[in-house]
Structures are given as C-alpha cells and as structure tokens.
C-alpha cells in the first residue's frame, strides 16, 4: 500500500512545475514490511471493481478559484438549501478589503452551488454582489460589466454560465497578481475553500452514517489545504493573512492526524491540472476527527461572514 505523505507540507508547490512530479514521486513510497500500517477506516474503492481504470478519481492538490473548488463536491449528492448560503444582501457588511476579499471567495462558491441546481435567476444577483466586492478591492467598475450582461442573456445556458463564472474569477485572480496583491488573493481563495468545505460538511456529511465517498472528498482536501497554506505564508507582510493563516494551521492539525493510502501502481500525477488520478483511496480518518473538522470549519465560516 502506498501513501502521499503529510510531511510533504514543507515543500508542497504553490504553482504548477515539474517539481510537483518530483515531490509526489519521492513522497509516494512503498511502506516497509516492518512498518505497522494503521487499519483504514474508510475506503473509496468500489468493492466489486477496485481497479477499474474507467472510474478514475480526481483529487485536486493545487490552488483553485472559488468556482473550481465548488466543483470538487459536485457529485456528492448535495441537496439544495437556500438558507445555508450567504445572502447577497450581506454585501453591504463587507466594507474592509480583507472582508471583501474573503467573502468574494464565499460568494463564488455559493454561486457555483446554485448553478449545480439550476437556480440560475439568482446567479445574476450574486454576480452583481461579486462586482461590488471586487470594486472594494480597487478593481475598475467596468471590470465585470460585460460578464454581468452576458449572464443575463445566457441565464438558461448552463455551460456558458459556468464559463462566465470561471472567467470572472480568473480575471480577478490575474488583476490581484498584477497589482501585487497576492495576500488579498490568498484571502479570497481561503474564503472559497472554507465555504466549499462548509457546504460539504453541513449538507453531505452524516456522522451517524458517513458515506465513504463524501468522507473521501473531505479528507482529500488536506492536499489543497497544504497548497493554500504554502501560498499564504509568502505574504506575511499583511497582518490579516498572518491572522487567518494561523487559523488554517490550527485546522490542519486534524488533517495531520490521518493518512491517505493508494494501491500500488494506482496513482498518476497530472502536473498541468494539478490532479492526482486514482481509482480509489483508503483513509485512517475517524468520525471523531471529521466532526472536529466540521465544527471548526463552521466556526471559521461564521467568523468570515459576520462583522
């Protein structure tokens, strides 16, 4: 049995380079026979076809936009609950740049969540909220105007809507990088990551009868969390980045308590898309640990979305 070690957090790449392949290659090592391997608690391998390569599982390990991170949980059977997402009217609460940045990430995930259920009419309102918050980050008021007009015209075209949402966040990402505001970008990505985890742990995770596929998606975010932490720690000149990075490090303590294992020869690394491809995983995570993650995510999300 193979694993991608948690110790790689010190060298995890922030951007896609060939080094990523080298890191995973050196971290994916066969466990010595003399080593006692913890008994996995959950497995995402399908019992009848554990090595079926036509059913590859994709685990994202890089930095993702809020809309992209929402797609990770697309097939988890989430139910639609309009009371759990952040009301677009709350935009007036987020006047500081760091609050605007974090909730820009939250709204992006919520917009993606609504899109999954075809609640397209509300998407226009959320797009306008994203425009308002982006302007508080000193982006031109015309920055997303074309996208908003296109959303209104393509409201019933799911594929076009998805592209417009992704394009909008790519523009925001590029603008923040060009302006040297990577710390603000990190806060936005953090807000999106927390919101996606919040929706998954509140709507899909059932501690009384945990679905291994849901558990797998939650547990596998230890990789994307490592990437997020690696990115944010480069911008400690921003006190709010320092403040929230410490909170993510606190959360990471629970992710460090378990391992994810793969069958020998069942791991492929796509360094372009920053994806681990496998037919399944086996995890030593416990329900108690998952509950700790769920509760801390809820606490952190409340802190992000309130003033």
Summed up, what is this model?
This protein is of the alpha+beta class. 52% of the residues lie in helices and 8% in strands. It has one domain (2-305).
Name its key features.
single chain, about 300 residues, alpha+beta, three-stranded antiparallel sheet, about 50% helix, globular
Description:
The chain is an alpha+beta fold and 307 residues long. It has one domain. It is built from eleven helices and eight strands. The strands form two sheets. Strands 2-1-5-8-3 form a five-stranded antiparallel β-sheet. A three-stranded antiparallel β-sheet has the order 4-7-6, with helices on one face. A hairpin with a 4-residue loop joins strand 6 (268-270) and strand 7 (275-278). Helix 3 (97-116) packs antiparallel against helix 6, helix 4 (121-135) packs antiparallel against helix 5 and helix 7 packs across helix 11. The radius of gyration is 19 Å and the shape is globular. The model is unreliable at 5-34 (pLDDT under 50).
Summarize the topology.
Blueprint: E1 2-4, H1 18-27, E2 28-30, E3 42-43, E4 57-60, H2 66-71, H3 97-116, H4 121-135, H5 145-153, H6 158-178, H7 182-204, H8 212-219, H9 221-232, H10 239-255, E5 260-262, E6 268-270, E7 275-278, E8 282-283, H11 287-305
Helix pairs in contact: 3-4, 3-6, 3-7, 4-5, 7-9, 7-11, 9-10, 10-11
Count of individual beta strands: 8
Question: Which strand order do you get reading across the main beta sheet?
Answer: 2-1-5-8-3
Order of helices and strands: EHEEEHHHHHHHHHEEEEH
Largest sheet: 5 strands, antiparallel
Q: How many helices does DSSP assign?
A: 11
Classify the secondary structure makeup into a structural class: alpha+beta
| CA-CA gap between termini | 47 Å
Proportion of beta-strand residues: 5-15%
Tell the overall outline. Answer: globular
- Total count of domains: 1
Give helix % range. 40-55%
Radius of gyration: 19 Å
Name the average pLDDT: 84
Which spans of ≥5 residues are poorly predicted at pLDDT below 50? 5-34
């Amino acid at each position: 049995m193979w694993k991608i070690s948690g110790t790689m957090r010190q060298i995890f790449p922030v951007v896609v380079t060939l080094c990523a392949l080298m890191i995973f290659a050196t971290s994916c090592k066969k466990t010595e026979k003399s080593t006692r391997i913890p008994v996995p608690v959950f497995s995402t391998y399908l019992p009848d076809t554990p090595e079926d390569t036509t059913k590859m599982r994709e685990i994202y390990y890089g930095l993702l936009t809020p809309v992209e991170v929402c797609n990770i949980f697309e097939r988890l059977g989430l139910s639609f609950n309009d009371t759990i997402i952040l009301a677009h009217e709350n935009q007036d609460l987020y006047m500081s740049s760091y609050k605007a940045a974090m909730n820009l990430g939250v709204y992006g995930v919520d917009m993606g969540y609504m899109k999954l259920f075809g609640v397209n009419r509300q998407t226009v309102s959320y797009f306008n909220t994203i425009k308002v918050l982006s302007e508080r980050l000193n982006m031109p008021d015309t920055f997303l105007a074309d996208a908003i007009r296109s959303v209104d015209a393509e409201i019933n075209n799911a594929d076009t809507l998805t592209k417009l949402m992704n394009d909008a966040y790519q523009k925001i990402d590029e603008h923040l990088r060009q302006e040297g505001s990577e710390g603000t970008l990190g806060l936005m990505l953090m807000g999106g990551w927390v919101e996606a985890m919040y929706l998954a742990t509140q709507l899909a995770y059932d501690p009384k009868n945990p679905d291994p596929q849901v558990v797998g998606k939650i547990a596998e975010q230890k990789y994307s969390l490592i990437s997020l932490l690696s990115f944010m720690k480069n911008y400690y000149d921003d006190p709010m980045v320092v403040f929230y990075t410490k909170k993510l490090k606190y959360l990471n303590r629970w992710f460090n308590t378990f391992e994810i294992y793969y069958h020998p020869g069942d791991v492929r690394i796509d360094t372009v898309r920053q994806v681990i491809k496998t037919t399944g995983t086996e995890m030593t995570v416990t329900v108690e640990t998952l509950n700790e993650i769920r509760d801390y995510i809820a606490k952190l999300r409340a802190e992000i979305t309130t003033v």
